[in-house]
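Hi! If you just cloned this repository, the fastest way to understand the data is to look at a raw example. We've pasted two of them here, unedited. The first protein comes first, obviously.
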Amino acid sequence: LVFLIIFSIIISLIEVIGISAIMPFISVSSDLNLIQSNEYYRYIYNTFSFENDINFIIVFACFLIVFYLLRSGVNIMYLYLLSRFTQGRYHYISYKLFNRYMSIPYQAFVSKNSAEMTKMIITEALLLSGLISALLLMMSEIFIILLIYILMIIVNWKITLALTIVLAFNAFLMIKTVTKRIKLLGRQRVN
């Protein structure tokens, strides 16, 4: 579990790098003069001795494609490990419930509904492992959101603050208006 939490933080960092790598590529592709005017682009251009600006952009694009393919591979590996962990929890919980039912005295066992016991072993264990999986995925998404927000604050804190206020106000209005409407429709449906 600790490994999955650490891995989700690593995934979050990779996602933020992936998001932040798009804008430099778009800016260089749209304005070739940036290669010579920006010190970082110029350093890379001179270090690798590119013959012209188009070759630089092609290599940049290839680098981004490889990065996104690797990112996808890491995400697939994370989802595999997450699924393996939750299925292991499902097996463990089912096994424990089954052993508990097997240790019940015979008279009590016979008096219980076998369909109810089967439901408890299969359905409840599956729901609990699904909950664990959803919580771990949600935690990973929260890490991504936090890191993106931190990156936005680093880039331009004033715009980030203004955007946060506007979105929070929008969410508040949405919750107030939609919640009342949903409750009203729910009451109408019940009646």
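Ok, and the second one:
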Amino acid sequence: QWSSKIPKGGFVVDRFLDEELGKVVQQVDLFHGHEGYLDVKEVSSVIENTGNLYSFSVDYNRGVEDGISAGKYDLVDHVDFRDFQTKQKGIRKVTPELSSFNHYITTDDVLRRVEKRGRPADFVELLAFGETYPNVQLKFPIVALESVFHSRGKLFAPYLGREISERSLRFALFGNGWVSSCRFMVIRDRE
């Protein structure tokens, strides 16, 4: 029989590993005032927006221009968005990780490290993130390395960033390194 309460020390078997739940419980002291039990809805809402995990739906059938418009960005680099294609189809809920390495890092090093946990996010997933969580990009740049744009013999990767107090959708040189403040969106394998 299912219960809407989780006993202290119990397991959550949906999308999150016990270790991840343990980190969340420690970070926000979820058991405080609950006499050893947690409400499932409270745990879910905290997990979805804690640390570097975010949950949202992606409509892979929607055009890139529609995704940009829905994101309501203040500044958008001018490129031919028809070049961006996604391999995914349909509508899917994802819970990507925003990986930070806290130091300058090359694109090759990022891709090697990301490969251990999943795959880099594509442009459509980045746009859906920006639409769902518009203020996160004001804290740090969020990069999607799966989609690249070719211009004048060079590759560029899309990222969500901040220009003073405005939200931006920009493209950075793919082969260069990345500053320590960047977060790299990773679509985890178990999704």
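That's it. A detail worth noticing about the second one: Residues 1-35, 41-50 have pLDDT under 50 and may be disordered.
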